[in-house]
């Protein structure tokens, strides 16, 4: 396990890479089964995910709801492509930015007992990407990934 690596390969793209000490089957399940996603994709301390719905079929929808002391946020989208234990392509919209739909590609690669997840976030403009880069998104995601590390240690 290494901390996440964030790069900006294009003016409208953010790429995030993170490795986990587990086979791809476990990391895939943790990303696609609502009961497991709810346990780790919580963001910074003090945040929870009380609602998580995933219809893991092409054309199926997902919906995540996060809550914290002073707020609530929802993300939702549609699965466009699914290659089990290999790749997901989906849309993502946050209720706080309803006019900004993002195309998200997640690639799962296993080597030597580790699984690397590479997530490319394709935004509609440079301005949107820059706004995301100014947010604490990477800190929240790394906090979630530490939660995923803990969940994985229970599952292996």
Overview of the structural elements:
- Helix content is 28%, strand content 47%.
- The protein has a single domain, classed as Alpha-D-Glucose-1,6-Bisphosphate, Chain A, domain 4, CATH 3.30.530.
- It has 156 residues and is α+β, with helices and mostly antiparallel strands.
The CATH architecture can be given as 2-Layer Sandwich
How does the major sheet shape up? 8 strands, antiparallel
Shape: globular
Strand content: over 45%
> Whole-Å distance between the termini?
15 Å
Helix content: 25-40%
Structure annotation, total helices: 4
**Alpha-carbon Rg, integer:** 15 Å
Can you tell me the CATH superfamily? START domain
Query: Could you tell me the mean pLDDT?
Result: 95
Kindly give the count of domains.
Answer: 1
Sequence stretches where pLDDT stays below 50 over 5 or more residues: none
Helix and strand element order? EEHHEEEEEEHH
């Amino acid at each position: 396990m290494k901390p996440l690596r964030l790069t900006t390969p294009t003016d409208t793209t953010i790429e995030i890479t993170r490795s986990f000490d587990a086979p791809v089957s476990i990391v895939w399940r943790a990303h696609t089964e609502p009961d497991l996603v709810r346990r780790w994709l919580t963001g910074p301390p003090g945040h929870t995910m009380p609602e998580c719905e995933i219809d893991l079929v092409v054309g199926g929808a997902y919906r995540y709801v996060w809550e914290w002391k002073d707020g609530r946020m929802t993300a939702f989208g549609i699965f466009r492509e699914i290659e089990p234990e290999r790749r997901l392509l989906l849309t993502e919209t946050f209720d706080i930015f309803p006019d900004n739909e993002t195309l998200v590609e997640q690639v799962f690669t296993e080597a030597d007992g580790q699984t690397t997840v590479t997530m490319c976030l394709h935004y509609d403009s440079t301005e949107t990407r820059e706004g995301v880069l100014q947010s604490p998104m990477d800190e929240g995601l790394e906090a979630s990934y530490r939660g995923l590390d803990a969940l994985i240690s229970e599952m292996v």
